[in-house]
Amino acid sequence: MERREILRWMGAGFGMVGLKSVLHAASEGAKAPHFPAKAKQVIFLYLNGGLSQVDSFDPKPALAKYNGQPMPGPKIKTDRASGNLMRSPFEFKKCGKSGIEVSEIFPKVGELIDDFCVIRSMYSDNGNHGPSMLLMNCGHQLPGRPSLGSWITYGLGTENQNLPGFVVLCPGFPVMGPVLWSSAFLPNAHQGTYIPNNEREPEKLIRDIRNQQLSVGEQQRQLALLDRINNAYLQRVGTQPQLEAGIRSMEVAARMQTEAPEAFDITKETEATRGRYGDDDFGRGCLMALRLIERGVRMVQVYYGNFQPWDSHDDIRVHGQLGRAADVPIAALIQDLKSRGLFDETLVIISSEFGRTPMIQNSGLEKIGFGRDHNVPGYCTLLAGGGVKGGMTYGATDEFGFKAVENRVHPHDLHATVLHLLGIDHTRLTYRYSGRDFRLTDVHGNVIKDILA
Amino acid sequence: MVHRRTCTFLATILIAALGVTAVARAAAPPASAEFFELKIRPLLAKNCYACHTATKLGDLQLDSREHILKGGKSGPAVVPGNPEESLMIQAVRRSHERLKMPPTGKLKDEEIEDLATWIKAGAIWPETVAPAPATTEYVIRAEQRAFWSLQPVGKPEVPAVKDQSWPKSDIDRFILAKLESEGLKPVAPAGKHALLRRVTFSLTGLPPTPEEMKDFVGDSSPDAYAKVVDRLLASPHYGERWARYWLDLARYADGRIGAADDTPYANAYRYRDWVVEAFNNDLPYDKFVKAQIAADLLPEPERTSLLPALGFQALGPNPDDRLDVTTRTFLGFTVACARCHDHKFDPIPTKDYYSLVGVFRSSDYKEFPLVGKDIVDAYQKHQKKIQEKQEAIKDFIDERTLELSDMLGTQTASYMMAAWKLISGECKDAAQAAEADGLDRETVERWVRYLKDANKEHPYLKSWYETTARNAPLAEVKKSAEEFQDFIVALNLERNEIEDRNYVKLGGAKGVKDEKTRQYANLEFLDLEKYYLWRDLASEPYTKSGFKFVGGVHYYGPKEIDRFLSGEWKRHLDRMRADLEVLKKASPPEYPFLHTLADSEKPKNAKVAIRGDVKDVGEEAPRRFLAVLCAGDPPPFQNGSGRLEMAEAIASPSNPLIARVLVNRVWQLHFGEGLVRTLSNFGQLGERPSHPELLDYLAHRFMENGWSIKALHRDILLSAVYRLSTEHSAKNYERDPDNRLLWRARLRERLDAEALRDSLLAVAGSLDRTVGGPPVPITDEMKRRTLYGLVSRTKPDPMLTLFDFPNPNDTSEQRMVTIGPLQRLYFLNSPFVAQQAKALAERLQKEAGPDDNAKIARAYELLYGRPAGESEIQMGREFLRESNGSWPQYAQVLLSSSEFFSLN
């Protein structure tokens, strides 16, 4: 089907297909927040596997001093046997007007550090990827709870009826997979729409986005008949909200055929723009995120890569490659959000499920290992844009970057803050299910007031 | 019934403890210890203690007077003398704005009244009886044992109902009694068409054929429907459908559980086929359970036929995973929560976890060959030869590679100088530069590349870059290169010495080299910067996180080493490679086998790992069953690992969970929701049953009927409640919007992935109905039932994923049903649906002839199991007229309709 043709059809008004009545029943337009919001949309760049804080945004000179020695103090518990302290192979530089120190593996982010709030005092509850990722994404270590993006679209609705409200991009799957963007017991319209962004062409990116055989007119005729058949069925079986939602999703699907290929098609950007993002999966993902946010998608989550690329158990040097590769599109995204006037209303989150130990990991699978293990007591998360103070650090880990000791921030607190920035009181965004009220932050979570602009 | 029994049971214990009599009970004044023990403590224990003792939800503990006066986050729970101001009363009356307790359902009026009376009288809390114990030794308290799902399965009395005409069975009387007590009336029964379609999908996952529909509609005998149920239960497709549900629980896929990379198991399907057969043969459920835990320990002759059942355990290597899936599937208890701490909500101490895990750790994975020993031996012997040859080749090459790297290291300075000639432009041609000094050309080129990029992760080339940058005289550059060479020679030596010492620490040639051993072997390492330099020179290329690291400057691996070898060295390598090829060609094909378990030779108790930390071990946990499912202290298992004894305890009629959990699963699959909606959690955090008496009735009857699942289906499917329509009733809806009381049938908004794909094939006439056999990759050309599609653990099929096929790496109690636009795109645009639409169009032509009306009517019968209405035929004709008679396009619309993929 030709795009021009479809647009003509769209221009003629979807009303002729006649789903208006159904639409009305299940309308999911934008909803009012609890209080005036600082941010309207969210981009969550997820560095799956575990970004090492002491090699990126939390410099610890003591590691050089004590390199190769055991960490002073009582023996501490880590996931696996861990060895002596290991200094970062990367150098840190003071950046921006704020003078925040950033590792050489994030040079471009360093240049923009005055736009970022660096939370250096994150901590989590579980040393395994799965539960910790669930905690970071769904506020609970076990599957079965709605994800952050689902809660957000549930709370705020969507601003573009032609695209899903919550889009998840990942080349392949992160550990745990679809439960990380599940709507669980929330209405399933709020489930993240997963797009494997390792494909380059929009037609391959979204399976079956185009009909290879029928013309627009033919499909339009089909949809009109389908609408009549479905409505007759609905009349016959009576009030059935889920059926209505299903029929409505057919309408979104029909419209996605026109808007989605365009939205996901980064070749619509200039070569110069594309060049600034780089041509790897994450770079293309970040650029797609920008285009989706421009089109009113409420939340876009970009997973860095398949499985868990940041899980540098064997060799922390890999972080050098990862950092420099991630640095480029992150910086480009921030710049473009600004130049397109979206920065102030878009909250950008950059995080992992946990950090990495300041100690060497003894268990390298390589012959000689210089990796770092999972670090649950301390890690870092970056925020930028909508309603967050830039050029500041918040909280601190101990001398070695092992444990958050000052202004500690749990994922529940982060979630409470994200919702707050979107104008949502996290204690009031609830859903009654299975006999009790659920919320993203369960019975926890404090908004981090000090980082609000 | 269950509730009443629970209370009586508790009261008996407490009365005994206090020495009070039944007479005292009736007369106990509100300000007495008796009143508290008889009325208040049991009430608190039953409704509040799951969350408000040591767990302290909302910081609130309700286990002593001190604690209730202190209260939680919202303030004191009780104001003695003033029930109205007591948060507890506001919460249980649900008059408080926010606090509404207990979350599982409002207390009975008389219970609320008792609480208020007790508070008004001063909230007396006798000190003679200790509050909830705070000792370290875990003691299962009486009120924990009194939990509903742990009570023996009773045989509840069938309740009396007012409307005698509606019920068709006792199941209906339980349902109706509840409906009547709430003033609700069941809606009308489903029509014959809807009913046949529903029951056919329920039992076989396929749509009824028009012929079956005609037979049923035309059969006016009173047992017409019962005959249908029997016919479907006897169909081989019944086992296929119900096996798939079971496979969700068993986390089945065609590969090893827990493998980071896809590890296909070509024989895994033998377990799948066994499950299909077990359902088709109606293997008694207790036997079905025992077989999947301990078939290897059962007596012959059934042992051999039941062995494939062990795939349930043996498709994964991990004892903790086996324990988790076993307990959640059969017991509906989350025992795995107790791995790191005593279960927060259910009476399962950590020690009990290790009692069970000891059983699993004392069981080993075992392949059970399906061919004679001679064939197995021959195959394995041959494989061993291949492996030995491969290792010999690898060792030989690795040694040469390392030697070469060390040798090239001793010539570092010459190579650097040759590279410098090229970098500085003195010489343009690498071949020339190499030849002049008798050097290897590729290595010179590699040095050029390496030296050109000054961005190094070690500092040892600083002097070189400093010297070359200022165009120092050649002698100085040369000196810098020679110093670097000395450093490399020393580094290679140091590295080799470290490797030698590590080799000894790891136990030499016979040592174990796995990750765990390496972790604890206190290995030595090069200094980080030296390591980076060593790696730059000698490491092999590798890919990590999508980044390709080129090999070291001096690294020449299996693909490149040959040109450095000559004479006998080269001939030796060539010979070994040729031998390997011959061996591979001569290899016999792999023999078929079953994935099973066997008791280890020396079964051992596990030790409690404190907070789940395997290095921090505590006391030994004797291998025995869960204490909470035993009357007293559970006796240790006597035989081998204890697996058979455990299986027998699990599948025992005296286990209160086994039958309840199963009948609830079957109920859920027929009604869309369980009587207990948390199918694999019958503990505190699970939901309470909507119809506890019915659940017990079904469980009891199930066991009485010899654990026959088919008999259970029959009971359920022949009930009037199963046969209800999905009709709406405003009055009922207002009282019970969630339809918990089952006043109507639940509309299934979407078929699951398998039923959907199978139906598309079935109505198009393309379904291949062969039963059983090895898995087939799911492509557009795959016409078998989806059950037989290859399921990968790491690369989920996109179509299955789109329609919520569960993650096969974990036990899954229930399918999610999502409905999203991408699913609709599948119907609109996928080649598979278009292909089936085309096939359907051809089928209509063949079966209904040239007449459009007849073809449309046939389509409605095939797809929706009902005749087409006049207006529907008109709609179809209009479409066909406008689309120049494009039947495939019309067929695709019908296949995309909500009616096709939902169940009314």
Notes on the protein architecture:
The complex is a heterodimer of chains A (453) and B (904). Chain A is globular, with a radius of gyration of 23 Å. In chain A, α11 (281-294) runs parallel beside α12. The model of chain A is unreliable at 1-28 (pLDDT under 50). Chain A is built from 13 helices and 18 strands. Helices cover 33% and strands 16% of the residues of chain A. With 453 residues, chain A is of the alpha/beta class. The longest helix of chain A has 24 residues, at 241-264. Chain B is mainly α. In chain B, a hairpin with a 7-residue loop joins β5 and β6. The two termini of chain B are 33 Å apart. Chain B contains 40 helices and six strands. In chain B, α3 (33-47) packs across α6 and α12 packs across α13. The interface between A and B is large, with 86 and 77 residues.
